[in-house]
Specification:
20 helices; 17% strand
Length: 647
């Protein structure tokens, strides 16, 4: 079973705090608007009404089928109690590395509350109110709103939370938005139960989110360094911070100041992107990165009657188009770093983003995703709930917009050094350079992937289940994070290094009518012990013939040993010398030709036994993951090695 994106995001919940090694371009797109303009444009808190606050109001904008589904979800939530989170469950992360038990309890409570709130909002009969009160109270009583894996940010370190040092991270910000929308939609009903509930919501959001954001310097926001390159945490957190601030803060000066603070952080994230607008964390992370930038821009637009608007900026349009330009086929997307190979995109959000930017191709792709991959299902988001609310308003428009999977023939992202090309024969190739200090990095400079007829042939395995090891000192002891398990050479027993100093150089991209080519020097991707003077890798898509991989190398001494890996989930036949046959699900075959005079061959089944490995079973739908290993027979100090992949 393929993972739906809202479930997939459970795995995508931790990131390196920030990356200061990469170049930052001071675009400051939102800071073209001054704080004075923000104050003048901002709709007052008591007048900001982006969504209906009565059942009659919802009936005017939502189909009956959606209203029935929201009520049904609420009825299911009504039958369940809100569970406490024991201290011993909180401690599991430092004791065993398990973060899942805590997150299951925490995330489930927020989902349960959200389903109750939406049901009461669209029905308006009061039957969900008491249980909403229970949910608000239970969450308010928690010592920490975030994930245990993120407690290392507090001075006391990981373990139990220090209630005297509130940490603003992904899920504390998510929780603030949930409670703020709860107050917005059912505040008057809560007031009837007790006059203390709404003040409690405001108090908890203030002390846990709004006040710390005004005074503390968090690592995910660069720790006060304006030149720090931020990752997806910044827009994800800030989009929720903006929502909570707009809805809860009654002091208009503080409200405008907080909004401007959020705008500056969004700017800093955008400043850290390359000129191509690409996401080095991959397409599945885009929904929690560039997609969250859109969430923030959407709120800014609505809260100022459209006066704070940068949708027409060329860079924002590049950032948005990345998601459909990295689509392979069906639910397969290019997966680099920790990105997963499949996802079910939020089609309505893509349609809305395309509509706001005037990008018709993105609108059509969003409609296609909604109709084809989602089956016109309107799920209730586990995260990014403000996005989900805006999606409800766009159901009819997206449903009626022409759906088209209009895939891009060629794409090149110069900053993340990612190329993609598809041939007329159904073959697709993607390859990348970059460096091994990128966010969510795998040691995979020069890696490539090949698909045929929409099926994976040669793959990037991706990342497994996140545990304490994933972002700790043992990250590169996890096999799927290392170069020997990517489609790369291991040279004189040396795999690629694991910092930003290990990188591709002399990267060049070329495109013509019948071919696209990416070449790079991998010399600096390997430690000095590999003895590499030059290692030029070229990945070429000949659009009528196939994919050619050339490795031209020169070593400082005769070669001791060399292996080349190919990873796959296809059925593999290696019996014919000089050719690997990959059988696809439609029973067609793809072939990889290699030189039998230079290589011996074997294949290995990857045994998925560790806790981290379990996520790979989901990523590849239970398919067997194979490693084909070519071992060099020669000691040549200089050589050109070629592999040809074709039908």
């Amino acid at each position: 079973m393929k993972l739906h994106f809202q479930h997939l995001l459970i795995a995508l919940v931790i990131a390196l705090p920030f990356r200061s090694c990469a170049q930052v371009t001071r675009r400051d797109l939102l800071q073209q608007f001054s704080i004075q303009q923000v104050k003048q444009s901002l709709i007052p808190q008591n007048e900001f009404k982006p969504f209906p606050q009565s059942a009659d109001g919802w009936k005017k904008v939502l189909p009956d089928s959606v209203i029935k589904k929201l009520i049904h979800n609420g009825e299911l939530a009504l039958k369940r109690e809100f569970k406490n989170i024991p201290a011993t469950v909180t401690l599991e992360y430092v004791r065993t590395g398990n973060r899942t038990d805590y997150e299951n309890l925490s995330f489930d409570k927020r989902n349960q509350l959200w389903n109750l709130v939406l049901a009461e909002s669209v029905e308006g009969k009061g039957r969900f109110t008491d249980q909403i009160v229970n949910g608000v109270w239970s969450i308010s009583e928690e010592s920490f709103w975030g994930a245990t894996a993120h407690l290392s940010a507090q001075k006391a370190g990981s373990g139990l939370p220090d209630v005297e040092e509130p940490i603003v991270e992904l899920f504390s910000a998510e929780t603030a938005a949930v409670l703020a929308w709860t107050d917005y939609f059912v505040g008057p009903q809560l007031q009837k139960v007790s006059k203390l509930i709404r003040p409690r919501i405001r108090y908890e959001i203030d002390r846990r989110i709004l006040n710390p954001m005004a005074t503390a310097q968090f690592g995910w926001a660069g720790s006060g360094n304006p030149n720090a390159k931020l990752n997806n945490w910044a827009p994800w957190i800030v989009s929720n911070y903006i929502a909570a601030n707009l809805l809860i803060e009654k002091d208009e000066t503080k409200r405008a100041d907080a909004l401007y603070r959020g705008m500056k952080i969004i700017d800093q994230y955008i400043n850290g992107l390359g000129v191509d607008g690409g996401c080095d964390e991959g397409p599945s992370y885009w929904f929690a990165a560039g997609g969250c930038v859109y969430d923030a821009l959407n709120l800014l637009h609505d809260a100022t009657n459209g006066k704070l608007n940068i949708y027409n900026d060329q860079f924002i349009q590049k950032m948005g188009s990345y998601i459909y330009k990295t689509h392979i086929a069906g639910d397969y997307f290019i997966n680099v770093a920790d990105a997963h190979p499949t996802l079910t995109p939020d089609g309505i959000m893509l349609y809305r983003f395309g509509r706001d930017m005037g990008d018709k191709q993105m609108m059509a792709f969003g409609s296609w995703s909604y109709h084809t991959l989602q089956g016109q299902s309107v799920g209730v988001e586990q995260f990014h709930r403000t996005r989900g609310l805006y999606n409800l308003f766009a159901i009819n428009d997206c449903t009626n917009y022409p759906a088209k999977e209009d895939d891009v023939a060629d794409a090149w992202y110069s900053d993340v050094e990612l190329m993609a090309s598809r041939g007329v024969n159904g073959l697709f190739v993607a390859a990348h350079g970059g460096n091994n200090g990128e966010s969510h990095n795998h040691d995979d400079i020069g890696d490539f992937m090949v698909y045929a007829n929409g099926y994976p042939v040669i793959i990037d395995v991706g990342s497994g289940t996140y545990t304490a090891r994933t972002f700790g000192k043992d990250r590169y002891k996890l096999w799927f994070n290392t170069s020997p398990y990517h489609n790369l050479p291991t040279i004189n027993g040396q795999e690629q290094g694991s910092t930003g100093d290990f990188k591709a150089t002399d990267v060049q991209y070329g495109q013509s009518k019948n071919a696209s080519t990416l070449s790079m020097n991998l010399t600096k991707a390997y430690p000095a012990e590999a003895g590499v003077r030059s290692w030029l890798r070229t990945v070429k898509m000949d659009k009528t013939k196939g994919v050619e991989i050339d490795d031209s190398y020169e070593l400082s001494a005769p070669l001791k040993n060399l292996t080349q890996t190919f990873m796959s989930v296809s059925d593999i036949d290696t019996d014919k010398p000089g050719q690997i046959a990959f059988t696809l699900p439609d029973q067609s075959k793809i072939y990889l030709d290699y030189d039998t005079s230079a290589w011996t061959i074997k294949k290995e089944k990857m045994e998925l036994t560790t806790p981290e490995d379990q996520g790979l079973k989901h990523s590849w739908d239970g398919k067997t993951i194979w490693r084909v290993l070519l071992t060099n027979k020669t000691t040549d100090q200089r050589k050109v090695v070629r592999y040809f992949i074709h039908k």
